[in-house]
Amino acid sequence: MKKVFVCLVIICHAFTAYALDANQKALTEQETINAINKLIADLTNEPLKSEDRFIAQLATFQQGIADLDDDNVTLFKTVADQAYNQEKYQLFSAITGLLNDYYLFKNTPIRIQEKLVQLESLGVLERIDDSLRVELEIDRLLSWNHLYESQKTINHISELDAFEKTARQEIKLINLLGEALSKSGNLSAAVEQYLLALELLNSEALSESYSTKALILSDLGVIHEELSEYDRAIEFFDEGLAIAKEYVLLDVQIRIYSNRGIVYKNTQQYELAIESYNKGLRLARELGDEYSIAQNLYNIGNIYLEQENFDLALTSFESVEKIVSQWGRTREYSLVLTMLGKVEIQRENYDRASNLLLQALEIQMKLDDPIAKVQLYEILQDLTERQKDYEKTLMYHELAETLSDSIDAENQRIQLREQAAAYEIQKAEYEKRLLEKRMLTQEIRSRGLAVIFLTIIGFVVVISVYQRRQSKTEQKLLEYSIRITELSEKQKELSDSYSVFFSQPKRELIKDNESLWDLFNQMIKTIVEQKLYKEPDFNVSDLAKTMKSNTNYVSTAINMFSSLSFNHFINRFRINESKRLMAHYSLNRSLEQIMEESGFQNRATFYRAFKNEVGVTPAEFRHQIKKADS
């Protein structure tokens, strides 16, 4: 949950970092309205004049982008319509870019995609110069990254090679690619992109280079934190912080202090973490930055909650609640209510906890955030179980399981669509090569005996392809057998005892995703050898840290090769363990003892998961074992 909140706050700051003193120069609300009305009047009275002067005026509004309101946006849309009607496409597109910055600040990246689709449908993108076109494409990539559609960024960025770009735009594109690679789990490639961006920054004299350089160093620190390389992460944070302090980049300092606090928290250096968060908090209060104030208070509350200092945790989260409640019924407000509910559960104030969590759920029902809903259902499940209201416990458990399955199914649909798109590209390439071969064949035919030679080669290729297709199933089995054969004797023994059987994926899927396939196999080996499933609170974040990867990459591997959610995936290990314990200990241990030793946290989840997997309840299974022994 913390990472979702941190992500939301960072989004809002990432696009104001370049103009620390801009807010001091921003127009007042009335000045903004007057300036926009003047722009409309100028366009009306001087329709034939150059667009350059009008575009230059937009810089004034760019500085005060955070202060625009709905009325200002409506006026800008009027200016845009006026510009389009006068065929001033450069100005029309420049206003679109300005509005995109506003949507990014308001954390509504989906609106950017809508605006770009509109530009494409109007044919405007083909009528503007490369510099402005690249800026709009950067907006598109930013929106994809914020919506966690990183693969779209990775696929699309090569299409911009044909456009002329400034040095600043080149660096922006490299940073966006690094961010997309990081979110998609390819951390080593992301590091390469960020280092390339630093190299370009050192060679270009850009006015905002110091701010950009400090932010890149911060991003490198975040990647090393995800790899659990905490010392290296702190080195990057300290280097970025030194630059931010030297050039008085207060908002960049706030961001780095927050990221550094996460490292200290993960290494259980709680005093250093709180110190780092408090430094960011002081700077945020100095700037009057409510988002960062709330973020740092929230992070401090999380530490107190982890330390089981529930009174201080409650004080921190209540301070956050006072801030975010003014923003309306937002995701942030729902998240803070959830954390307050968790604290009250620990304080055994169950009635207040229920009230807070149900308020959070009411907000989440109106938002498109299924992962947050799953987390809320799981917390409500814990609460109702403590209240011994088992009917509601089962209800929330089923809601969480159903929604989790729905998320997994949607992820699989996205993967299938991406695979279908990749197939179409491969098919087009194959048809192109086939056409080239046919043309080559016609040329060779005119050379007499060469025709016979080519025919023989073609015949051999066709036969080989046919034979490969006929033996496709056997080859899959052989590949799988080779993987099993390569396991050590110890691994084989563990596999016999704790095997989790998954249907063999298609060879094409493995070939196209070799790194994910290797990660999936390594995950199974690690889980079995270290018996990680025995930890009741073991989650996908823990597994990602163990594998030195990130949660998105680990979840994708599990979904792709097992077609299961993480909960179902890890429960399959636990169920196998519980079956082994039942067979080994017969009736010498209670089902509750077996449940706990297998890693299950509560009876309802144990019974439901066991019956779904085995087809009978644990009690019935034990009865069958006893009957077979007798």
Question: What would your notes on this structure say?
Answer:
With 630 residues, this protein is mostly helical. It has a domain at 445-629: Homeodomain-like (Arc Repressor Mutant, subunit A), CATH 1.10.10. Helix content is 79%, strand content 0%. It is built from 32 helices and no strands. The longest helix is centred in the middle third of the chain and has 56 residues, at 390-445. The chain starts with a helix and ends with a helix.
The DSSP helix count reads: 32
Secondary-structure class: mainly alpha
List low-pLDDT spans: 1-26, 470-500
Please give the radius of gyration in angstroms.
29 Å
Strand content: under 5%
List the quaternary state of the chains.
single chain
CATH superfamily of the domain at 445-629: Homeodomain-like
- Principal-axes shape call: globular
Helix-residue proportion: over 70%
Quickly name the level 1 CATH class of the domain at 445-629. Answer: Mainly Alpha
Find the count of extended strands (DSSP E, 2+ residues): 0
- Report the CATH topology name of the domain at 445-629: Arc Repressor Mutant, subunit A
SSE inventory with pairings:
Blueprint: H1 2-14, H2 22-25, H3 29-45, H4 52-63, H5 70-85, H6 89-105, H7 109-122, H8 130-146, H9 150-156, H10 167-183, H11 187-203, H12 209-226, H13 230-246, H14 250-266, H15 270-287, H16 290-306, H17 310-324, H18 331-346, H19 350-364, H20 370-386, H21 390-445, H22 450-470, H23 472-485, H24 489-498, H25 507-512, H26 514-530, H27 540-546, H28 551-562, H29 566-585, H30 591-598, H31 603-614, H32 618-629
Name its key features.
disordered N terminus, Arc Repressor Mutant, subunit A, 32 helices, mainly alpha, 630 residues, 79% helix
